[in-house]
Design goal:
The protein has 2 domains: about 80 residues, Phosphohistidine domain (Glucose Oxidase, domain 1, 3-Layer(bba) Sandwich); about 290 residues, Alpha-Beta Barrel (TIM Barrel), CATH 3.20.20.60. It is globular and about 60 Å long. The chain contains 15 helices and 14 strands. The protein has an 8-stranded parallel beta barrel with strand order 7-8-9-10-11-12-13-14, surrounded by 8 helices. With about 400 residues, it is α/β, with parallel strands linked by helices. The longest helix has 19 residues.
């Protein structure tokens, strides 16, 4: 299981078309961004490639969509009605009732957590979590990736930004509309953070139709995140338009929406990016810590004015352990609790605490207890579905 589920069994018809099919089980070789609509409309996904924390697997985790990886030779046998059994990491042709299993061995509860930044895909995630009874008061901020916002809104960011100033402004206005609809779902005391665009070249190529995207031999270590933002001439115009429209739509509530920089190594990049985006000194900007260099630069980020630190453990782990998070062949090396990983997380948290800067550490549901026991933090990031499962377990 790449992505687990609280459900004991998921039954549905195989969808091999790659098109949306409400409630069907998507059967596909690889999960990629152009299949966004098909993924989010599915009850489960079966694929032949990918790792536990790939981009689209992370989307499924946020939505509570289980993902099972099978051997490529077995993919063709999956036709008609099938039943996915997450607790057995198995798929059965036809229908079957799940066997009773042991109770979950998890002890974490909301009493152990001070605040939660909830990773979302769109406004419905905010609405569904705020509707939980009893309300999860510790869920006080919401985190959305700009590229996921684009997937949900049907936007092609590279096409828009490369088409010229007018199209870049239009793109910024559309992003502001989406953020405004999310902000409308916020309860008092809650806020929204958008991580600026972080499209790798291979993902960008799949959703870009009008302009060429340079092919890179190793996109994970290529021109994305801060590296790309610093070189994209029209992104500052789009970002300025975005902030102007937020102020127009939300008024003073626009201050409840803030931003963070992805894939950045050092304070020099941070300062140059602020200048590139024409951000005044009083405009908060967070930093995503997801490379070893960023871990060691954490004190300098704080000194340079980073408003908060977000620790992106999924990328950080793959760079610390040299294990591609999207490659199942090295999944045994990709260890979320490796001593080197825990040391990096601890160092980042302590750097933020020393500077009085908030630090949010992303935790998979399976690692929640372990991180709470072994890290000096009670400020976490969690996917929507895993937060809702924890809420249900705590209420029970």
């Amino acid at each position: 299981m790449l992505v687990g589920s609280h459900q004991r069994a998921v039954r549905g018809l195989c969808n091999r078309t790659g098109n949306p099919g409400d409630g069907a089980i998507l059967v596909v070789d690889t999960l990629t961004p152009e299949r966004y609509e098909a993924i989010v409309s599915s009850s489960a996904v079966i694929c032949a490639k990918g790792g536990r924390t790939g981009h689209m697997q992370s989307l499924c985790r946020s939505r509570g969509i289980p993902v099972l990886r099978v051997d490529p030779s077995e993919l063709d046998a999956l036709v008609g009605e099938i039943t996915l059994l997450p607790d057995r990491a198995a798929v059965v042709l036809g229908g079957v009732e799940p066997a009773p299993g042991p109770a979950e061995d998890r002890t974490a509860s909301f009493d152990d957590i001070e605040s939660i930044c909830v990773v979302i895909a769109d406004a419905t995630d905010i609405r569904s979590t705020n509707a939980l009874a009893p309300r999860v008061h510790r869920a006080n901020s919401w985190f959305i990736r700009e590229e996921f916002l684009c997937f949900a809104a049907g936007l092609s960011p590279i096409d828009a930004l490369r088409a010229g100033p007018r199209e870049a402004e239009s793109y910024g206005a559309r992003v502001a509309e989406e953020l405004s609809s999310m902000a409308a779902e916020l309860l008092p005391g809650q806020r929204l953070i958008m991580r600026l665009l972080d499209l790798r070249s291979d993902d960008a190529a799949k959703i870009t139709t009008r302009v060429p995207v340079d092919a890179e031999p190793n996109p994970e270590m290529g021109r994305h995140g801060a590296r790309w933002l610093l070189r994209e001439p029209h992104y500052p115009l789009a970002f300025r338009t975005l902030r102007t429209h937020l102020r127009k739509h939300l008024g003073e509530d626009a201050d409840r929406v803030s931003f963070a920089v992805p894939f950045i190594n050092d304070p020099d990049e941070f300062v140059r990016l602020r200048r590139h985006l024409d951000l005044g000194g009083d405009t908060p900007l967070g930093v995503f810590v997801e490379t070893p260099a960023a871990v060691h630069s954490a004190p300098a980020f704080c000194a340079a004015g980073a408003s908060e630190l977000f620790v992106g453990t999924k990328d950080l782990i793959q760079f610390y352990l040299a294990a591609d998070r999207g490659n199942h062949l090295v999944s045994s090396v990709y260890q979320t609790r490796h001593p080197a990983v825990l040391a990096a997380l601890r160092q980042t948290v302590e750097s933020g605490h020393a500077a009085g800067v908030p630090v949010h550490v992303f935790a998979l549901g399976a690692d929640l207890d372990h991180y709470l026991r072994h890290l000096p933090t009670r400020t976490l990031m969690m996917c929507t579905a895993e937060l809702q499962q924890l809420a249900t377990r705590t209420a029970a």
